[in-house]
Amino acid sequence: MAGSQDTATGSRTIGGGETDWRTRVETFSKSDFVRSFPYWFVPFSLVGMGVYGGIGWNTVISLTDYEGFDRPDYTNLDFSMYAQALSDPWVYLTAKNTLVLLIAFTTITLVLGLLLSILLDRGIRYKEKIQTIYLLPMALSFVVTAQFWLWMYNVNNGLVNAVVGVFGLGPFNWIGNPDLVLGAVIFALIWQYSGYAMVVFLAGLQAIPDDQFEAAHIDGAGVFKTYWRVIIPQLKSSSVSAAVVLMVFALKAFTFLYAMFGQYRVPKATDILATLMVREAFMLQHWAYAAAIGTILLVMALAVVAPYLWYQYGQGSL
Amino acid sequence: MSRPTRTTEESIARVLPELDYSKIALSLVVMLFFAFFVSPIWTGLVTAFKTTGAVTATTPFVPVLPGTEGFTLAKWTRAIGYLSTGFVNSLAMTIPATIVSVFLGSTAAYGLTLVDWNERLQFGILILFIAGIFIPYQAVLVPLSDFWINLVPLVDILAPVWQLPFLEPDHARLLSLTITHVVYGIPLCMLLFRSYYLTLSDELVEAAKIDGATISRIYRRIILPLSKPMIGVVFIYQFTAIWNEFLFSLTLIGSSSSPAATVTLVLSGMGVDLSGIDFGFRMAGAFVAAMPTLIIYVLFAEQFARGLAEGNT
Fold first, then answer.
1. Residues of A with Cβ-Cβ distance to B141 under 8 angstroms
2. pLDDT tier, A59 (very low <50, low <70, confident <90, very high otherwise)
3. How many domains does chain A have?
4. Is residue A206 in a domain?
5. ipTM of the assembly?
6. Can you give the residue range of the structural domain that contains A189?
7. Which residue of B has its CA nearest to A41?
8. How buried is residue B274: exposed, middle or buried, by Cβ count under 10 Å (0-12/13-18/19+)?
């Protein structure tokens, strides 16, 4: 700023309209906007092209009849792919599975994560070490964990059947039985993600001042009542952000399913919109149809994310 | 934690008459969850050391000791051989992609939060970045593959490069994948750096400006050195995310038998044959593929947890 002021006074002594124009350009070129431009504009243009350019292009492709190995033909745009999707029973089936996965996975993961965070917040010993163990599955790829769970769910020798066998149940064909396979997948995903929810809740718990425990204690509230009435209501913001991340994940969960079954075509009971989209595109080359399903998924994700960002904005935490 | 445990213990004591019982119950629950989280990984680890016969003959989570019958390292040597190319490809892709996306995320956060040029416009751009974190990749996969195959076919554009030793035309796809990861990794990196930069004092930049420092000088001399702890967090988080990623690998590289296939892609195609699943082999493969992320996690679990916790606000 000091530099630009010097230039301005320097040029005023010369005077004249042309120099005035020149100083303005010079001031502008030294402004914070121009100087910081390369810092944010390079990443912003990459993200703009990749994310928003991609979404726009995808929407246009979804209006074509693009199929097979040619290039898309943009001359004849219509909504026929969306009409086809809305009359396809398989889309409803996958949408239903997506919804079941989303609700069951998000709810149980949140409750379990909350439970674990309270457990670790109770001043137990080796808290850091235990947290590290609980969070370990989050550091692994879904391709890796899918291998573990494939073995865990094995009918004859898997650990899961060995455990339920102790209670005199089973053995169950967790993967092969259409009634069980979605639950088995959800269970495995909960295993992987509840450590994440725990970490988010722990961060929320640490922000709550300790004297609230004391105050509740003086009022004669027990531990359970204190958590239920005083502490958990204050974790609303943590719950909302964790829930959004979990729901968006559930919408796009593809890798675990693909890796578990080793192919695009997953069992009917676990087929969700995300796997349907990738299969239509990369196995069947129904590009336009896949693009339409991708757009539907995007709208679903936005229905979760937009209110969240609005809520965050209202809270002043954006 | 500075929470006064005494008072809370007293309150537990009121609910449950004997303090010790509640402590024992608490430890039991902790141990139970410990088993829950560790057992799939542990079972996989011990299975990787068993012969095919021992895999079915022994209890899944009971290890077979070296020197006894049923113990073998053969699965590991086979898995390492099977995955080595994918491992190298993944390293060659993940390291540059991580470095570039972390760097660009930091510059974006700097230009949008620490320098004030137009608050409303900066906020608007910020929202576009943040929304970019939540986009399901399925919504961009079709144009993305059209882009890399038809519009910018690196295999033709950089044709002379693939003549070099150790390179094959398929590696063009690995380069496409690297660039793709940079682009889609920037938003989260930006968000993590932003949350850190917001904790830095505004006066820092203002004071440096009054002293006559330029925007780029402030970044290089003040912000970048101050960012060190956060660079560690973002790097660890981003490395793990890119190494573990699968959907872009599958759709941009295509086949698990491609010479450019990443380690996750090779692992997904491992042991797919008609003779049934060789679980020992698969488990060994899973650990080989997870090795870099496991090492990083063991060394930097705290930073990883921080990246996770802060990456969603």
1. 58, 277-278, 281-282, 290, 294
2. very high
3. 2
4. yes
5. 0.89
6. 85-315
7. B108
8. exposed
